[in-house]
Amino acid sequence: MYGNKIRIIRLSRGMTQEFVAQKIGTTQHAYSKIENDNLKISDETLSKIAKVFGVSMEDLKSPEPVIINFHNRIQNSSKNKEDFICSSEQLLTQLSQQLKEKDKQIEMLLNHLSEQSIQLKTLIGKN
Questions:
Q1: Would you call 60 helix, strand, or coil by DSSP?
Q2: What is the spatial distance between Cα 46 and Cα 118, in angstroms, rounded to a whole number?
Q3: What are the pLDDT digits (tens) for 72-117?
Q4: Residue 57 contacts residue 50 (beta carbons within 8 Å)
Q5: In contact, 91 and 36? CB cutoff 8 Å
Q6: Distance of alpha carbon 85 from alpha carbon 69, whole angstroms
C-alpha cells in the first residue's frame, strides 16, 4: 500500500534496503516485502520507517507525494552510492515498463472508441 512511496524516499535518501531494515529491526528480506507491498505493515513499523527517513507517518500514508529533503542523504560510502545508482536504475526501468503498459492500454481504448464511433455513425446513417 505504501511500498512504492517508501522505495522512492529510500532511494532519494541514498539508503539501502539493508540499512533501513537494520534501523527498523527487521531483515532485508522482510523490508523488501514492505516495499513490494507483499507484507502488511503495522503503524509501529511505518512509524519507524518514517523516523529513519525524517518524514511523518502521515506523509507516508498520504496519497500526495512527499517533498524530499536531500540534506538527509547518506553520502559517506561509495557502496551506498553504487546501491543508490543501481536501485535508481531499477526503479526507472520499472516506471518505464509501467508507462509502456499504460500506453498500450490507452492505444487499445482509443481503438475501441474509434470502432464504437464508426458503428454509431453507421447506425445513425441508416435511420
A1: helix
A2: 52
A3: 444 444 555 666 666 677 777 877 888 888 899 999 999 999 999 9
A4: yes
A5: no
A6: 18
C-alpha closest to that of 66 among 6, 1, 125, 117: 6
* pLDDT digits 0-9 by tens, 1-37: 889 899 988 888 889 999 999 999 999 999 999 999 9
| Contact indicator for 60, 31 with CB cutoff of 8 Å | no
Q: Specify the 3-state DSSP secondary structure of 58.
A: helix
- Residue 126 Cα distances to 119, 120, 122, 123, angstroms: 11, 10, 6, 5
CB-CB contact of 3 with 37 (8 Å): yes
Task: Read off the C-alpha cell for 126.
Answer: 441508416
